Amino acid sequence: MEIAGPDDDPVHPRSGPFPFPPHLVSRSDAACIAARPDIWLPVACARANGGRRAGCCTNGVCDLCPVDSKFTVLNGIDAFVRDNVRLVSGTEVRAVSAEAGTATGVMLREADGTERSVRAGLVAVAANAIGNAAILLRSGLTSPALGRYLHEQVSLEMIVDVGAPNYFGGTSITGHCYGFYDGPHRATAGAVLLENYNAPNELRTDRGRWTERLKLKLIAEDLPQADNRVTLGEDGDAVITWIGHSDYAYAGIERAEAGLADVFPFPLEGVVSKHFSETEAHIQGTHRMGADAGTSVTDGYLRCHEVDGLFALGAGAYPTSSAANPTLTLSALSLRAARSV
Ligand SMILES: Cc1cc2nc3c(=O)[nH]c(=O)nc-3n(C[C@H](O)[C@H](O)[C@H](O)COP(=O)(O)OP(=O)(O)OC[C@H]3O[C@@H](n4cnc5c(N)ncnc54)[C@H](O)[C@@H]3O)c2cc1C
């Protein structure tokens, strides 16, 4: 994935350096990091700053950008090419087959509706927390936790006018603030990660103060709830029941919003706008890992308790939410699972 990130990060100790250095931070992030290096950090991310992909051009629209700097499996698939690896597109995994408690293969459905089976000595499903839950439910797994605890973070987007210049860093988000992250408050209110956006930028109309504006996102951990879940409809496809986020998550947002002035080294002059995001697009839960087969679906190596030789990879394994972006952790867990074979 060719991650660009800092080596000297006091919040996340690492076993080794990231492959590439962090992006140049925005001017507001530079001021924050200089004033509070204990809580403000350059962001580690999969938008290139060296490596095989072109460097990020900071236009803030990665899904449209022809530079294609951000890692996706589409621009990274060649890293996985081996003689014995074959990518089969237009084919859906419907279920995992098993004999005597051991995975023996998968049932496939082609784009034209044809169904066929494939035998395998080992099966790893990685169809995200919604797709994995549907496959495992169709496979007849009966764990009480399967499909339950679907969750993601709550996030509040804010635009705030400030008394300091902003922007011009090397990628769309260059600074993260951990000032509301861990601590005794988590007994009653969720941890919050504060993201300071660099692009696409929001300009102020006051002459000479065009960049003196922040675009922030407050991202709160949620308490996974059993009634937020994936079940199967009559056609065997996933049906999602969503009863909402916990009060704990909203309490975290409220706490962080009230304390915003404490984590910036320049004056906050006024909130221009704010709204809750429709989604963080972080699909988590549904096949949570744990030591107890009665309350979890996989063990810590993402091996299903109920079926030998079956892994369920991805953020579906998360038993708790955290305020963090999920993808580097779910990728690390997949590498850890692979090493257990
Ligand atoms: C707009 C957006 C922005 C995001 N930004 C960030 C970010 O900044 N940082 C971060 O950490 N995360 C971010 N995420 C989350 C990140 O994309 C996910 O955490 C990550 O993609 C999960 O990887 P995965 O391989 O487990 O699942 P996915 O990427 O969802 O891949 C699962 C694949 O399985 C396929 N599939 C599903 N069902 C079946 C089936 N039955 N048979 C065969 N194939 C199947 C799907 O088509 C898909 O290709 C973002 C997500 C979105 C949507």
Short description:
This protein is of the alpha+beta class.
What are the defining features of this structure?
FAD/NAD(P)-binding domain, three-stranded antiparallel β-sheet, 6 helices, 16% helix, binds flavin-adenine dinucleotide
Report on this model:
This protein is an alpha+beta fold and 341 residues long. It folds into 2 domains: 88-149 and 283-339, 3-Layer(bba) Sandwich (FAD/NAD(P)-binding domain); 153-276, no CATH class. The chain has 6 helices and 13 strands. The strands form 4 sheets. Strands 1-7-8-9-6-12 form a 6-stranded antiparallel β-sheet. Strands 2-3-4 form a 3-stranded antiparallel β-sheet. Strands 5-13 form a two-stranded parallel sheet. A hairpin with a 2-residue loop joins strand 2 (91-99) and strand 3 (102-110). The radius of gyration is 22 Å and the shape is globular. The model has no long low-confidence stretch (mean pLDDT 96). The structure holds flavin-adenine dinucleotide (FAD). Flavin-adenine dinucleotide is lined by residues 92-93, 126-128, 131, 135, 281-282, 314-315, 325-327, 330. Flavin-adenine dinucleotide (FAD) binds at residues 92-93, 126-128, 131, 135, 281-282, 314-315, 325-327, 330.
